[in-house]
Amino acid sequence: MLQTAKAVPSRDDARGVNVLRDPGLNKGTAFTEEERDALDLRGLLPPHVCTQEEQVARVLENFRRKPTDLEKYIDLAALHDRNEALFFRILMDHPDEMTPIVYTPTVGLACQQFGHIFQRPRGIFVSAKDKGRIARVLANWPRRDVKIIVVSDGERILGLGDLGANGMGIPVGKLSLYTACAGVPPEQTLPVLLDAGTNNPQLLGDPLYIGLHDPRLKEAEYDALVEEFVTAARETFPGVVIQFEDFANHNAFRLLQKYRDRIPTFNDDIQGTAAVAVSGLLSALRVSGGKLAGQRILFQGAGEAAAGIADLVVATMVAEGVDEATARKTCWLFDSRGLVVKSRTDLAHHKLPYAHEHAGVATLLDAVKELKPTAIIGVAAVGGAFTKEIVETMAAFNDRPIVFALSNPTSKSECTAEQAYRWSGGRALFACGSPFPAVEINGQRFVPRQGNNSYIFPGMGLGAILTGSTRVTEPMFMAAARTLAGLVTPEDLAQGSLYPPLASIREVSACIATAVAEIAFREKLAQVPQPGDILAWVRSQMYEPRYASARTAQ
Ligand SMILES: NC(=O)C1=CN([C@@H]2O[C@H](COP(=O)(O)OP(=O)(O)OC[C@H]3O[C@@H](n4cnc5c(N)ncnc54)[C@H](OP(=O)(O)O)[C@@H]3O)[C@@H](O)[C@H]2O)C=CC1
Ligand SMILES: CC(=O)C(=O)O
Ligand SMILES: [Mg+2]
After folding, report:
1. Lower CB density within 10 Å: C or N end of the chain?
2. ipTM score of the complex?
3. 129 is known as an active-site residue
4. Does residue 64 share a domain with residue 207?
5. CA 116 to ligand 2 centroid distance, Å
6. Which residue is closest in CA terms to ligand 2's atom 3?
7. 466 lies in some domain
8. Residues 447 and 319 in one domain
9. 3-state helix, strand, coil in the chain (%, to 5)
10. What is the percent of the chain with per-residue pLDDT over 90, rounded to a whole number?
11. Is the pLDDT of residue 548 over 90?
């Protein structure tokens, strides 16, 4: 027995196998001859040594053979678990093809099916059962150099509602973009799902649901869970930035208020969305020739995204010298009960600054007719809400109507790109939350781009991480919006694109991180010495999905 044990090493001794099983170290068929010897890999791999390019070709061939987007998602998730560098190489080199799979819209479907497609856990699940021991749970994470956590409690996943622990797909997807779009090293990222229960009856009745089969915690218990998590996360991973994602708005605004002046944190749905939308507005105004001060913006929806955008529109106008009261009057909200007006007594706190003197209006179409907005922004997750009549009405009194259909995923989009362009006779200045293909109308080609916070959060997080900023502030989001808008070229605008191409997202993120870092240094929030050339420094810190050398792998 002893002899056998010696002759056949135990798994722990089999260095080669462990390397192949570690996605951070594994190069698969790309291990060189020397590495195969040094790491005991001989025979564990087929003999042909592949280049990374050959591996990419193989992955793409298989990926493209998958019959559905969900199958493609599962395929990429498996690659992520197998070979991190190859996964990010593919994401970075094929952003237009891969982003809609790891991110919206497919990630929404994946979250809906999460318990059924689940293969391997990724990230940390902190549940209500962990009360009193969350620090120990976080300590189970194998690394201490985590710099960015994206946390969700799964209560408002995209526009799909309460998906409970299935919402883990969102932190995982967002953090994949952190690495692919902003070069944050994957080992510095940690997805967290805070399982406070779910009120989704379908999930509670689904034996394959992966979360607690319990109703959501009530406010006091819930707040205690979040507080324990935040405290433990900051102790376990000193300096970590915490991004709150896809919380329901009854918690999102409160938690932002509670933590924004205490730790480096932001709410992506409120603040990241605000920056991308303001950037889109600034780009649209370059085409229409107007100024923010001259706009009337009607939001369909009055939640996190709407209030976040409206607040940043106001802050931007105030920074341009407009008085706050006047600035507020440019923004109008329309919620599930109609136009938000002063006489209403049912308004949540975040709606009050936009409750103007006006008679009640019951339908969005009537609101458009009465207010004659220059821009409509859809953030209510009501698919198809921008009807033909609404877009035609917008086009009747605006030479260049601004139409942003920002709800996700695609099924919740207020209108398609084709509808916006066709119904406006090719005059709409359009942006969408989820991707739409290019549209040709009367020989003119329009290339819609995504008004999605994915243009903002990777660079925002990178800037905060690199500087060790102690806070993530509103001026940083304003700067991100302006930086992003500044990267839109006349060629982009000529084809209807209000954002730069996804292919340039790493450069976009580097510029946003630089703008954020400049503020962190100026406001003395940074914890590192200021480099001479901030942009060059930021670029030099960005992860490249190159394979580590065998020496590193050992
Ligand atoms: N493109 C992007 O980057 C982002 C897009 N989004 C998308 O925006 C959508 C909303 O997100 P978020 O703001 O966080 O969600 P919230 O739940 O905070 O807000 C939703 C809002 O929609 C309103 N609403 C619901 N039904 C209707 C209706 N029939 N007519 C008018 N308003 C209605 C709600 O009204 P009431 O207040 O009365 O309940 C609420 O104000 C989602 O689809 C999300 O995916 C969000 C963040 C980023
Ligand atoms: C994009 C995003 O954050 C959302 O739809 O929730
Ligand atoms: Mg979100």
Report:
1. N
2. 0.99
3. no
4. yes
5. 23
6. 269
7. no
8. yes
9. 50, 10, 40
10. 95
11. no
Q: Establish whether 442 is an annotated binding residue.
A: no
223 and 371 in a single domain? The answer is no
Kindly report the length of the chain.
554
Instruction: Name, in order, each residue with C-beta under 8 angstroms of 327's C-beta and a sequence gap of 6 or more.
Output: 293, 313, 314, 317, 318
**Are 126 and 228 members of one domain?**
yes
Known catalytic residue: 174?
Answer: yes
Q: How far is the CA of 369 from the centre of ligand 1 (A)?
A: 22
Q: Within a domain: residue 30? A: no
Question: pTM score, two decimals?
Answer: 0.96
- Asked whether residue 482 is domain-assigned, the answer is no
Structure tokens at 436: 């739409």
Question: What are the tokens at 272?
Answer: 């990241």
Summarised one tens digit per residue, pLDDT across range 307-329 is 999 999 999 999 999 999 999 99
The helix/strand/coil state of 402 is strand
CA of 495 to the centre of ligand 3 (A): 28
Domain containing residue 173: CATH number? 3.40.50.10380
Question: In sequence order, which residues have a C-beta less than 8 Å from that of residue 257 and are 6 or more positions away?
Answer: none
Q: Is the peptide bond before 23 cis (omega within 30 degrees of 0)?
A: no
Beta bridge partners of 335: 338
The binding-site residues of ligand 2, defined as CB within 6 angstroms of any ligand atom, are 104, 158, 246, 268-269, 408, 433, 452-453
Q: Are residues 220 and 287 in the same domain?
A: no
Same structural domain, 202 and 300: no
**Residue 1 within a domain:** no
Q: Which two tokens stand for residue 193?
A: 């799902």
Q: Judge if the upstream peptide bond of residue 47 is cis by omega within 30 degrees of 0.
A: no
Asked if residue 24 lies in contact with residue 187, where contact means CB atoms within 8 angstroms, the answer is yes
Judgement on whether residues 393 and 283 belong to the same structural domain of the protein: yes
